[in-house]
Design goal:
With 110 residues, this protein is α+β, with helices and mostly antiparallel strands. It is built from four helices and three strands; from the N terminus they run ααβαβαβ.
């Protein structure tokens, strides 16, 4: 494992090897921790080069935070692409123009 404290459900999500994985959880439940740990696990234990990973979240701030966390895990700035996507659409769909917490994130690789 990569040294990040995780509960059992989080550990299972990080170590899942069956293909794409959807992580659904409420605000403050550790989604960013799980996804950055999973990204680090894919690179360090899964043989996936960082440049083959695209990490998508809803805000520039979340994308920067994910990049920082993955850099801490890997010990270097990753060549992973971190992209904010459809922030306005998220706010429209959530019904709140003031929603600042991202409720969905995804990592795609091939």
């Amino acid at each position: 494992m990569i040294g990040i404290p995780l509960n059992e459900a989080q550990r299972q999500a990080v170590e899942f090897r069956g293909g794409p994985l959807l992580v659904l959880a409420g605000a403050g439940s550790g989604k960013t921790r799980v996804l950055t740990a999973r990204l680090g696990h894919l690179v360090t234990h899964g043989g996936i080069p960082p440049y083959r990973i695209l990490a998508v979240t809803f805000t520039n701030r979340a994308a920067q935070e994910m990049r920082r966390r993955v850099a801490d895990i890997l010990g270097q700035d990753p060549s992973t692409r971190f992209r904010p996507a459809c922030c306005a659409g998220k706010r429209r769909c959530s019904g709140s123009p003031h929603s600042s917490r991202s409720t969905t994130k995804m990592i795609v690789w091939h």
